[in-house]
Structures are given as C-alpha cells and as structure tokens.
User: Fold these one by one.
Assistant:
Number 1:
Amino acid sequence: MRQCWTIPTLPLAVYREVVAHLRQVDGVAAGLLPQTAPHFDPKLSQVGGLWLEIPEDCDRHHRDRLDAILQYYGDRAQQPWQPLDAQP
C-alpha cells in the first residue's frame, strides 16, 4: 500500500532524514516526491512530499513505529502531515 504525505514548508534535508528513518522499518520503502508548484516560492520545500510503501502484512508494531516517526517530525515542524493522493 502506497501512501504520500507532505508538510509544504519542511526543508529538503529534513525530508531526507524522515525518509532515512522510515526506511529503517522492516519491509517499508520510502522516497521523495518532486515539487509540483508552478512558481518558485522560497517558503515552500524543494520537494513535494514523501511516499512510503507499507507491506500488506505489516504488523501493528511496525505501523506504530511509522506513525511515531511521522509524528516526531510533524511535532518538530509544528505542522501536521497532510495526505496526498498516491503517486505512481
């Protein structure tokens, strides 16, 4: 199952850190989405968000770990993660 999330103002370096932490959870794949804003805005992130693929048989412990990682970075940014339509 693929999920896509964004915090529009999160810096690129932080997105890379989040993806690195998500990839540490067994069976999870994660990466960055390209920025799709039509015009440059220095207040926006250099990326459009992140995607993560969670195996269908992912257990509750792994899902809780993923939620904790996303919650931690959302708290640091003082913004909630916003879901995006799944990207191919």
Number 2:
Amino acid sequence: MMRLGQLAQQSGWRRRVRARILALPRGTTQEDQRMMARAIELAHAAGARGEVPVGAVIYRAGVILGEASNDREASADPTGHAEVVALRRAAITHGGWRLNNCSIAVTLEPCPMCAGALVNARIARLVYGARDPKAGAVDTLYDLCRDVRLNHRMSVIGGVMRQPCAQLLTDFFRARRQAKRGAATRPSAGA
C-alpha cells in the first residue's frame, strides 16, 4: 500500500509531465522546438539592432534552407519581414520557389503578407510562437494558411514556445515606449 508521501510525489510527477505535454501543442516535434529556439535567437539579434524582434527558420529534414529576422528598418523595405526574407534565402538554397515538404518556424503569427507568401511558396507546415492580435492572419484575425479557396493549404501548429516569443515582443515595445517617454521629458538642447 502506498504511503501518503509517495502518493503526493506521484501526483506531483504526473502534474509536471502533464504540464510539459500541455505546454507543447499537438504535432510539435523536437526538430520544431530546435528550429523555434533558433528563430528566437534570430529575433533577439533583430531586437538588438532596433528591429521588431521576429525570427524565422525554414527547414526540411533537419536542414536549415533559409533563416532571417526582421530587417525593415535597415533595408528600408516594407517587405523585410522575417518570413519573406527567409523565403527568399530558402528559395535560393533550394534552387526554386516551390518549397514543398518544408516547414517554417517563426516567433510571431504571420501577417497577411507573410501568410500569403507562405501559401504561394507551397510551405507544408507552419510552426509559430506568439499570436498577433493586431495582424495575425493564420489563427487570430484570418485563416489564410488553411483557406480551402486557395490553391495550397498547410498544417499549422501555433503556440510553440509561446511565452519566450511573446516576452521578446513585450520587452521590446516596453523599452521603446520608455525611451519615447524619456525623450519627451528631456529639455531640448536649445532651451
């Protein structure tokens, strides 16, 4: 017969295992987790450069075909989203624009432009971290990647490593707001 302490340990163990299982969305692989960790590294680098911290990695069978982070500010290009830049690089590596059987891990739910580009590139799987309540075109505002009216659909797994992805964005925009407030309260040099 189990003692009360053993029962408490067992239930604690079960709680931890259950929490770990629930933390990873269904269908997530170790490869997806590894690629999302790389996308988070790329997002950190983008944030350090003053870009919105979003990173994307396109991969197939454990091989990275293209990776990027946002570079709109540096390139002065409105299409400089991580997903679009990663698609361009992956197409060059792959030798063609059709990226069938490829997956993409991106730290933020793609916007309409990026979701459309993923559909047009024939990406097979999308793995994303944080939802985007203002521009998310995969689950939040629209469902472009699974829309039956389009000529291609992909499987979508959202919420992979959601917390660190969301925290990157929260910290970035908080720092930006604080810097803006600090600049507004400083006296001008000519006064």
